[in-house]
Amino acid sequence: MSNRLAVEIAGLRLSNPTMLAAGILGLSAATLREAVKNGAGAVVTKSVGLKPRSGYANPAVVQVNCGLLNAMGLPNPSAKYFAEEIRELKKNGVGAPIIASVFGFTAEEFAKAASILTRAGADAVELNVSCPHVEKTGSEIGQDPTLVSEVVKQVKGAVDKQVMVKLTPNVANIVETAEAGAKAGADAVAAINTVRAMAIDIDTAQPILANKIGGLSGSAVKPIAIRCVYEIYEAVKVPVIGCGGVTNWRDAVEFMLAGASAVQIGTAIASEGLVVFKSVIRGIDSYIRKKGFRSVRDIVGLSHRR
Q1: Is 59 exposed, middle or buried (CB count within 10 Å of its CB: 0-12, 13-18, 19+)?
Q2: Interval 60-99: pLDDT, tens
Q3: Which of 86, 147, 170, 293 has the fewest beta carbons closer than 10 A?
Q4: With left for phi above 0 and alpha for psi between -120 and 50, is residue 88 left, alpha or beta?
């Protein structure tokens, strides 16, 4: 199975095309290692910045009938502190690439955080230019191709590891930002982060989230994410990583047919547990064998071929 499922993304070798998405269990060396033990081909850490942030007040996460709404506020202990978790992982061996998700309020902050975490041993960085609920970072940067380009260039100049950009769907044209990132030197792009959304309690007549507006993840956003991956795949040469609503192997295969070289799994862990990785991996393997493909790489972008 291993040879059929192995993929390479911008020089990173994964035993299979699944990744733990940022923000889900990427809190410590122990939780990241647990994801790998359960089959994840790579893990992405929680988004980390230069300074500690406590995040927003509760309620910060609410379940809706089509997924999860969250407005966490990017809580994190700081890149300097989190670097110790990465060192701990690398010291004892983890068996899969570690990708550090970073954010900043300026391009320089992105670069400094990325530098701290790669020096600690992170194999690559993922730039969170797509958080929909924190002002002056996240999607406020990701909605501007010029700012995306500036962030990528700064980070590429500061680190010697692969740089990925996680894109926001909250734009008129996601292809523009994908192209800006790739042109600036990004080694891969990930699509998508959460969709800007909210929920209101009809009894209190008040928004449920403390921050009022948050990001929607889960199965409801999958068709949006598939469309984004499909469009980006046709426009850029760098690998695309699919994210948004992967709950089973069929979802993963759909992303790969659209052009994703790998998929990130996040919200499904809340309902299915970490066993979702092994389930998705087995399903993908069964699919490629039944269809007569030699490798999972053969199905990437297959829906574009006529």
Answers
A1: middle
A2: 999 999 899 999 999 999 999 999 999 999 988 889 999 9
A3: 293
A4: alpha
Q: How far apart, in whole angstroms, are the C-alpha atoms of residue 52 and residue 36?
A: 26
Cα 174–chain centre separation? 16
Decide: helix, strand or coil at residue 287.
Answer: helix
Quote the mean pLDDT of the chain: 95
**Residue 59: cis peptide before it, omega within 30 degrees of 0:** yes
| Mean pLDDT of the region 208-229 | 97
Kindly state the DSSP code that residue 116 receives in the 8-state scheme: H
CATH of domain 2-52+73-197+219-304: 3.20.20.70
pTM for the full predicted model: 0.96
* Cα–Cα distance measured from residue 50 to residue 1, given in angstroms and rounded to the nearest whole number: 40
Task: Give the 3-state secondary structure of residue 249.
Answer: helix
Amino acid occupying residue 60:
A
Residue closest to 219 by CA, chosen among 255, 187, 174? 255
d(CA 198, CA 213): 5
Residues 6+ apart with CB under 8 A from 141: 129, 147, 148, 151
Report the catalytic residues.
131
Does the structure show a pLDDT above 70 at 2? no
Q: Which two tokens stand for residue 21?
A: 């998405």
Task: State the pLDDT confidence band at 15, using cuts at 50, 70 and 90.
Answer: very high
Q: How many CB atoms sit inside 10 A of residue 202's CB?
A: 7
- Using alpha carbons, list the distances in angstroms from residue 220 to 64, 151, 215: 10, 30, 12
The strand pairing partners of 76, in sequence order, are 53
CA–centroid distance for 272 within its chain: 18
| Residues 135, 84, 118, 47, Cα dihedral to 10° | -20
| pLDDT for position 200 | 97
